[in-house]
Amino acid sequence: MTSFRRIRSKWRLVVPITLLSLLLIACGQTKSTTKSTTVSSSKSSNSSTIAKRQQAATSKSKITPHKVSWNKSKEAQLAKFMHQWQAEMGQSYQGTYDQQIPDHLGVKFPEAITDGSLNQMAFWLGESVHFSWGLTQGNSTNIDVLAAASGGADKQVWPRTYLFCLHHHRPVVLTTTTTNGGQVYFYDTQNSALQAGFSKIVTGESANPRSDAELNQDVATSLTKKPQQFPTAYQGTWYWYDDTDAKIQQYTLKSTSGLALNYYETAQPQWLNVKGAQQTAGAGSDFYLRYRYYDGQQIPVMIKASGASQWFDFNAYQTPELAQKFKNYRFGDEPADRESDN
Questions:
Q1: Does residue 340 sit within a domain?
Q2: Could you give the residue ranges of the DSSP H alpha helices within 90-134?
Q3: Are the C-beta atoms of residues 248 and 14 closer than 8 Å to each other?
Q4: Cβ atoms of 93 and 149 closer than 8 Å
Q5: What residues contact 19, with CB distance under 8 A and at least 6 apart?
Q6: Claim to verify: residue 74 and residue 199 sit in the same structural domain
Q7: Which of 21, 109, 163, 332 fits 174 for a cystine, CB–CB 3.0-4.6 Å?
């Protein structure tokens, strides 16, 4: 798997490419990474409407300020929840909610936050962040850390640390497994039980995680229509970060003219396969849409793969800002890419 690399230069250019270009690129690739050529395309009002509808759906998890609070009672609820969760996971954690001092390879909590030392080396998705201990809500650029826990499985060599946070009044659970000194990289945990459990404790409201099945519920039926249609959640313009050229690229899934759509009914995940209607060679391009956590919300993230072995190409997002934020980050559920699979 390729390493996670950040390019800190400011970006201004979004390069559109057509879906047909993606298909041609996929067919022509061997062991090289994806590199797209620039082909002009326009955004349709329909694509924009779909994207807005999907973004509005994810905004339902936003928490208003008056619903946010933290006290000893909620700290005790978190302790009870974590005891149950770690037992189910077969893991063990030291938590500040138990008046313990979690230690991540010398970074101790809450001391590393209260003395400011963590802020000198903390990064969230590659960007520096500022942590505050306790419920402050004073500066929107700060992330309030309400609790911390470090540990893992019995035979796990390196620890995993969780920070239970508030950011823009939203409950967020960040995690790190950083083992190298000098910098600590945090990411949103993709454990839905942790995210939902902490959110319920903070807000007092049940948070039912959205399922990937919601995004893929009409995949099969959309392909039987005449003409075929892209599944509803797939439609629209998607943005991805081209690491080779350090640019944000885009493609639009709308018209199926000149295309043939299929899906792998028995595969996991059930990839949506797209080929040229007259294509007789090559595997085409594969797409799969799933939810991933970011900043306390679930956002749709599309995997793009290609080749006979469905090699991973990139993750795509509904806005160029998200594509820029995540760049070439991998969530862990992506298939192997061409380099690591050879």
A1: no
A2: 111-114
A3: yes
A4: yes
A5: 251, 252, 253, 259, 274, 285
A6: yes
A7: 163
Q: Residue 332 domain-assigned?
A: no
Place of tokens 């679930």: 298
Q: Which two tokens stand for residue 294?
A: 């970011």
- Cis peptide bond prior to 171, omega within 30° of 0: no
- Alpha carbon separation from 246 to 231, 289, 314, 326 (Å, rounded): 30, 24, 13, 13
**What is the domain count for the chain?**
2
Could you tell me if residue 342 is inside a domain?
no
Q: How does pLDDT run across 82-98, given as a tens digit for each residue?
A: 999 999 999 999 999 99
Model confidence pLDDT, tens digit, residues 223-279:
999 999 999 999 999 999 999 999 999 999 999 999 999 998 888 888 999 999 998
Same domain, 180 and 139: yes
CB 113 within 8 A of CB 121: no
Q: Assess whether 190 and 240 both reside in one domain.
A: no
Residue 315 within any structural domain of the chain: yes
Query: Containing domain of residue 143, as a range?
Result: 65-203
DSSP SS3 for 269? coil
Helix orientation angle between 72-89 and 192-203, rounded to the nearest 10 degrees: 160
- Whether 72 and 198 share a structural domain: yes
